[in-house]
Design a protein that fits this description.
The chain has two domains: 130 residues, Rhodanese-like domain (Oxidized Rhodanese, domain 1), CATH 3.40.250.10; 119 residues, Rhodanese-like domain (Oxidized Rhodanese, domain 1). Helices cover 26% and strands 13% of the residues. It contains ten helices and ten strands. Strands 1-5-4-2-3 form a five-stranded parallel β-sheet.
Length: 277
Amino acid sequence: MTYPTNLVEPAWLANHLDDPQVVIVDCRFALMEPGKGRQQYEAGHIPGAYYLDLNQDLSSPVQGHGGRHPLPDWEQFVQKLEAMGVSSDPPAGPTLVVAYDDARYAFASRLWWLLKYLGHDAVAVLNGGLQGWQRQGYALSQAVPERASGRFVPNPRTDWIVGIDTVRQRKDQPGVRLIDAREPSRYRGEQEPIDPIAGSIPGAVNYFWQDVSEGDGRMRSHAQLADHWSALDDADEVIVYCGSGVTACVNLLSHAIAGRPIGKLYVGGWSDWCSYL
């Protein structure tokens, strides 16, 4: 059976809740209230969904440099995937992972990107998130699924990420486009609610991550996203960053939905860049 990737509709997911080849992951999180996402999950989630926490599961501990959400320890991350029953190449084909949140893909897209980076293309986000699920009348559950068993063999796409040295060297080269995914006021340095210094990387252009979805949280159409990113059609290389490699993944997700090559991620983002200022 062929499964959809990158984006799935609530109705499709509702019809596959009992499919052993589908693993659902709740990625809700609140930057200013780190425990809130798990509390929300325990209060009610899509039936059968596991929970992964941005800080505890989708990142590794903060260091002096590297940004606020460094990439996870891959060995530990793979163990967590396998404990949810995610397999990279079982007889029936790779497990489809469906991620969702309630924040216009801010955290679900991080899991989407991590799996894609590890070579697992069978991954999608839920269109409209949890709100879209509930708007269509589907139920929530408080039951926590049991530990499962998968076999996941990572195949990292190491050329998908860049560090600060690469950004410094290439950001001003012809054909290279550096994209800042943060809200415009943060990009312009008018406010900075999280990091110690306000501003943006010189030469970056602003494509706010929320502009790829509608106000109700549904992703914009393929045609709308293709138009949204059309200024990059002549780019040789696209590098995307945000505050700490999280919401930038929403823009990267939209690249895939638009049928574009997925840009590279500067994981450390502004939180890493400003740590050197």
